[in-house]
Amino acid sequence: MSAIIERERAERVWHTVRDTLGDDAMRAVWLFYVEEASTRDIALVLGRSWVWVKTTLHRSRKKLAGALASEVSVRDGAAPRAQNVTIELSEALR
Asked: For labelling alongside 66, which of 21, 39, 56, 57 has CA 20 to 30 A away?
């Protein structure tokens, strides 16, 4: 894909992340996918437990799968599964 299309796709994904998640969940997702921080480091930065970070990342992926499914199914007729959200987020960063 061209760089412009990839950039637009990344912007759409992160716009969906911002619209779907609360502030702390958004920060956790950002730190994990963009900053490539470990879950333990995220816990320290956010002042939360490691279990909270793991749970929040899991729940955030599920929420985002639903949000992205709505967006994608309208556009392409295909809906991402929760496990594919990780791929979608990772690809949006390239």
From this structure: 39
